[in-house]
Amino acid sequence: MTPIRPPGRKALSHERIVETAARAIRRGGFDGVGVADIMKEAGLTHGGFYAHFPSRDALLVEALERAAADSAKNVAHAASDPRLKGASEFHKLVAAYLSEGHLKEAESGCPVAALVSEMPRQSPEVRKAAARSVRSTVAAVRAALPRDVEPGTAEVIASQMIGALQLARAFGANAEGKALLATVRRQLLSQYDTTPPH
Fold this sequence. Notes:
Low-confidence stretches: none
CATH superfamily of the domain at 56-192: Tetracycline Repressor, domain 2
Radius of gyration: 19 Å
Shape: globular
CATH architecture of the domain at 56-192: Orthogonal Bundle
Mean pLDDT: 92
Order of helices and strands: HHHHHHHHH
Helix content: 55-70%
């Protein structure tokens, strides 16, 4: 059996750049990702950027993909909270996505909620990656719903969840923002949750 070699220095640097950019786009939007700033935050020199990416847009595509993957992991982790034991997959998804933690942590949260209004103004390459993120969010909702829901329900619910998170963030991680999330959570769960009553 061939031993697995650890990643080389270039691969580790590439990883660090993408990770830094994935946080930066959710924190400051697409315009908040300047090559010089990302390289500096990643602890690398500006001149080394083009050894990793042919363009800024190529970095944005990878950063979006990383942000979507990280967000999915974070939501899955939040959904594994022992307090949600016995809840339906839909209940877990809604509770995790519309949580106070997700409200506070834009930098590690859903890139669609953080960036959707900016997506149409990006290059075709970045728009394609953004559309994949949106489809992935809708697919996660569809997978969590009961099988007998009407077609298009996942798109409606994903829109409500993303919009609720955006509006709550406009208020901030305060009583008003938390109350908005709680209201939407209750509404969605009252309509679509299949968790058996205790």
